[in-house]
Structure formats: C-alpha cells, structure tokens
Amino acid sequence: MNKIDNPKPEIWSEILKRPTKTIDDIEITVKEIFKEVQKKGDEAIAKYTSIFDGISLENYEVSEEEIQEAIGLISSELKEAIQLAKSNIYKFHSAQKTERISIETTEGVRCWQEKRPIQKIGLYIPGGTAPLFSTVLMLAVPAEIAGCKEIVLCSPPDKTGKINPAILYAAHLCGVTKIVKVGGIQAIAGMTFGTPSIPKVYKIFGPGNQFVTVAKQLATQFGVAIDMPAGPSELLIVADDTAVPSFVASDLLSQAEHGTDSQVILVSTSKKLIDAVEKEIQIQIEELPRKVIAKKAIENSKLIWVENDKIALDLINDYGPEHFIICSEYDDFYCNGIVNAGSVFIGNYTPESAGDYASGTNHTLPTNGYAKNYSGVNLDSFMKSMTFQKITEKGIQNIGKAIEIMAEAEGLQAHKNAVTLRLKNIGERE
Amino acid sequence: MNKIDNPKPEIWSEILKRPTKTIDDIEITVKEIFKEVQKKGDEAIAKYTSIFDGISLENYEVSEEEIQEAIGLISSELKEAIQLAKSNIYKFHSAQKTERISIETTEGVRCWQEKRPIQKIGLYIPGGTAPLFSTVLMLAVPAEIAGCKEIVLCSPPDKTGKINPAILYAAHLCGVTKIVKVGGIQAIAGMTFGTPSIPKVYKIFGPGNQFVTVAKQLATQFGVAIDMPAGPSELLIVADDTAVPSFVASDLLSQAEHGTDSQVILVSTSKKLIDAVEKEIQIQIEELPRKVIAKKAIENSKLIWVENDKIALDLINDYGPEHFIICSEYDDFYCNGIVNAGSVFIGNYTPESAGDYASGTNHTLPTNGYAKNYSGVNLDSFMKSMTFQKITEKGIQNIGKAIEIMAEAEGLQAHKNAVTLRLKNIGERE
Fold it and tell me: Which end of chain A is more exposed for a tag (fewer CB within 10 A), N or C?
C-alpha cells in the first residue's frame, strides 16, 4: 500500500495513473480472426472454438433440453437470490422509461422525441472459473424492458461443451432469445458479420478479456455499436472518522480480488482512519481464497490523505472513478459535487457488492476515466432517441423565411427552394 | 435516376447499398499528425495550419474584437433568422431535461439516477464555401442547456486568417467559451491531447470531411468520446398520391446538393407519383447553383415502386435512413412502425430544410445505417447518466443474503465478506 500525504494537484494524474496496455500485438490476431469469420462464417467459428476452447461442437445453439437441465442444477437458494436481484434490477430500470416529449416550438411547428428499441443486440458473457451470471441480469433485464426484438447471448463452452448452468438459468429467466456456445474474438466477429449459427446484431454489450475488448473496438469499424470502452475495474472510497474501518477495508478488498490490475484507492482527511483501514486490510486479506490476486492489487493501492473535503472532491473528479463510495459526515457535499463517477454508494451500509449484484443499479460502468464522458449501462443504452416533426401551412409560414435566409447564407439554394415552393403554393391559394 | 419496380427483399441491401470508402490511406496521415501534435503541441498545430490552410497565425484564439467585428458584419435579417432558429432549438432541447429518477427497490434500498453534464466538450465546424453556422446552433445550444463548463469550438481560418462571421456570431450567441482558429486533423488532435492554444476536451462533436472523420475515430483510442460515426447525408421519402410532386422533388434535390455521394431515395406505391416527381426533378435541377453536384447525386438516386405500404415500411426499416419524410395517406402507420430512422418529417408542409435549420429538432443525425443503433444528437449527448444508492441497516438485511449467495456462486469471496461483516455488525448490536 502506498500512503501519500497531501499530494499537490500537479501530481494527481501521476499518482492516480491507470495501468496502460499495449494492444498492438493483440490487434493483429483480432483482425485476422475477423477477416476469417467474415469470409468463412461457421467454418472459422469451428476452427477457433477448437483452438481456444479445445472442443468441437455440432451445434452451437444451446438447446431447450440443455436449459431445462441447467435449471435443475441450480439450488433453490441461488434461484431465489437471482430472482430477488432480477426484481430489483427490473424495478430500477423500468423506472427509467421515458414518455414522448412533444412541444410546439412555434405555432404550427410540432416537434417530438421518442425512444425506440435497438432491434438486435448481442451480450457477451465470459467463461472461466467465475461464471458472471450477474452480468446476464444487468444486460438482459434492461434489454427486455427496452423491447429489443432479438437478444443474443454468446459465451464460451467449457471442455465438455457446456455453459455454466447459472448463466443459462439467468439468460432463460431474463428473456434472452438465443444462447450460442461461442466465446472470445470469434464470438464478437460472429455477432458483427453474422454466420449461420450466430445472428448479426446492431450493438454488443458485456465484459471480457483484452482480446474481447479489442474485438469489440474493431467491431465498431464494421458498423456495430458497443456499450463502452473497457478497462480494469476500480474503486475509490472517501471516508472520514464516521466510517467503520473494517467495512472500508472489506470494500477495498472486494475490488482488489477482481484482478491484479484493479485500482483500489482510499482518500481521507483522517490519518487515524487511514491507519486503521490499513491494519484491517492486513487482517482480512489473509482469509481470502483469491488472496494472491488481492495482494498484488493492494500493493499498488493508494491511501491518500488530503487536507480537506474540497481538495478531496477535486481530486476525485479529476480521477473519475468507476465505483465511488462515500462514508463521510459530509456525504451531501460529495453527492452534489461529484460530476465524474460511474456509480456512487453512500453510507456505511452500502457496499459496492450491493450494486454489483442486487440493489437494482447496473454494474456495467465506465472504467479508465471514462466516467468523464460515458454513462454506465442503463435503459437508454438499449434504445435510440428519434425525433419527429409535423408542420402545418401556418407553421411553415411562421418559420419559412428564417429557413430561406439561413439556407441562402450557407449557400444551399435547393434547401431554400424546398421552402420557397411551399410558401408560394400557399400564397397562390390564399 | 434508377427506377426499380417491386424489388424482392433479397436484393434490398444491394439496391440500397451505401457508398463505401477506403480509409486506410487517410489513416496513416491522421496517425502521423496525431503523434506530432501529441509530442510538439502548438508547434505541430502551426506547421499543419500552414500546410493545409496556407496561413501562419500568431494567435489561434479568436479575440473579443474579432467577435464584435463579426457581429457588425451580419445583416439584421440573418441575425433575426438565427435568433428564431436558436429559440426553437432551445425550446425543444430544454424540454428534454430529465429529473432525478429515484425508487426504493426493496425496503431500505434507495437507488437513483441523475444526469450530470460532460464538463469539457469540443465542437468542430468545417470551413470552406458553405459556413455551417447552423451546426454551431445545433451543438452549442444543447451543450449550454446541459451545463457543460467548457465549450470549445475549432474551425479552420481562411486565407486571411479569419473565421466566417456567421459562425462567430452563432458561437457568441450560444455560449461557446473559446473559439480557436484551427481546422482539420490538427484541430481534432489538439482537442484530444490539449496544447497551449487548444484545450483538451472529453467529447468531440461535429461534421467534417473524410480526414476529420478518421481523426475523430482515432481520438476515441485516446479516451475521447465522439458524437457518432459519420457518413454521407441521406434522405428517404415515402410518398403516395396525396403528396405534391414538386415538393417531393424539391426535398430530394435539397439532399442531392449536399454532395455527389448523397443518398436520395423515393419509395412509393404509386407509379404516377414516381413519374411526376421524376419530371419535376428535371425541371428544378436546372435552376440550382450547385447543379453539377446535384446531378451526380441524382444519377445514383433510386425511385422504388413497391406493392404496398407494409413492404415499403419493411424496406425503410431495413435501410434506416438519416432523414425520413412521410407524405402518405397512411402517415400514422409509418410513424408508429418506423424503428430505424434519424429524424422523421411528416406531411406536405414539413420539408427536411425545416429540421436542418429552424424547427427546433437537431440536424446532427446518424447516417450510413447507424440509425439502427445510434441516436441523433440530443440533450443527453452532452450529459452522462450516473447512479447513486443509499442502503440502510434494514436494507442490507433485506438484500444481504442474496448478495452473499450470488457472490459466492461467482467465486468472489471478498464481495461476500463486505456484506457478511456488515450483517454481523448489525446482529451483534441487536
């Protein structure tokens, strides 16, 4: 752990530097696989599934029997937990629905905005030891509320050709329309170009390793949208003497166990709190099954003491954390002042885990400073905002002259003509 | 003009194919200039301004005197037109403001969503013969309503070192905080990395030629967001015998004058209407100052007859036009059924020009089929959606067990611990 006292603003960006990755090597591999999937379709999917997942499959689509089998394998305890989480996620994202916004900007000029669902979306769920069924909930629930017609889920098969039953259960529960046992770059390429086994989609959501991240970036060059650029997960906690050191330590550790490159930061106006949290981390870390990972991340963590809350807030906005926990006497000050953060957790009984799983907020959030310019996933991520307008004869008479003058000033005579013709037509009839 | 009768769905994508561009050559140039601006700052800005704009400037920032001079140069007629347009754009985008969305998903678990402005944004406005001051309105007005702190505008200087006065007037009127006389790739690179003359921004908006488009794409690799990927402008009109052929022709021509690669499409269930529009185009096109451009675009235009409105709607959704004009007896059918379009114009007195300039809707819209997965620019484009949560002791008791079970099933013990510790703490006190 690195304790830093009262750092000057000039060095904030240095001490809060995120790990940078070189993607050039990966990019060549990703481009090659994309080219092959584009050209050869399922033949390329089979080849790379064999290479990366070590298995040959006859059918990539998960069958109804496989889903039923998975449902049977999940304990009723886990089912109930998933259902509770789903219910909260559903409530919070349903509340985000918006009505048509309609106004008459000038008499006879009616403009409105409506949101319509993106028709075809793809969800990528990584495989491996930690089956991220919670991410299935976070992406499929709002997609279903939005009204997306096709919700395709891709996830890599294990060595026996299966997908983790909790992932299948969650997908089944949340209205996924097709589950495909394909992972990695080949899955993203498949959803980009479409193959007989994998439908082409318009937007791809979900986490993944560096290969998947680069593949999603490349997909955008072929007309597919993505949820957001990705980076290692991060947590910043601001805490003072009203915080409980063991709670703060447990939250920092829950971030640290994600990966060795996780960013773990504590900012405080209290040196006493910093010391107490440091001690608690040492105790709690020994009990963790993933302590090797957590120790590496904690080694790079920063415990930053600052003089006052004003400085703390500036530093936090400068960093733009993905997760931001506030355990402070002045929580209102931080809530009102924070402009760059993905999701904010307030008070001693609001651990990040709550938002990761079951409170109802989304856990797909901007990392890597993207909280400065990107939203976390929300209902609107699955929709497009469209505008409509209907102008009456009176309306075009009211704004027609302005359009003619502006179009002429921009040198666009045909734009002007479209109005002139209509005004003349009305004039002749009056 | 290409008349096509009753095309089968299998060939829709072929006949509605958009012009594709190769960007590989451009990419090398763009990458080089980015590297140089990143390393040398204003020195590189000066070099490329000299090369591309043929001028050396001492100061890149537009001074207060230059703005005052520009205001003096604009006719009062044009000022009034711009003010009317601004007023309508302001009304429509203000109406898009949203309140905090707050719900208790479970007793003691309060979640809310709030939007906060992106703090620093950049607007790119191309130079050249057609000064796009209307685009200044479309971008700066919602940015100001959103509350963006820094609104930087970059536009190339002409041979005398000036920016068109209408652009300066519009920028001044709409709260732009800094106007910089730098254009092209070097402007985008400057806003990406920041130089002494050009502030670094978090998101870049605005149109541009192929070089600017590729530069904006590259900017996203350095953490900057962009409004949307760009392509040539396009208009699709669906019209039947209730339409006025001369109006339809004038709208198609207003699209055609944009550029030789503009996409101009008419879909109709009436052969009579198609023939009448064709004749009207021949007449009107001869009067246009930009007729050389318009003729090229019209050569590639498509006049498509289809059997019925159902087929027409499917074809239109398959294409996903940027601008969609409906002049049909069945306008409700099209309004309700359209899912892929940027902006929709309804009725005989609603020309695309209205939305381009003064009705109040935004004219920065998804082209190239991106209407399937991207919104046009709207108030939310200048904001980020953030979530907040506050959980009480009762709240964590209500959802804590579900979190523990899910975290354990995902193999994330520290996530579980963060809840267990809190539940234990409450238990010990009860």
Answer: C
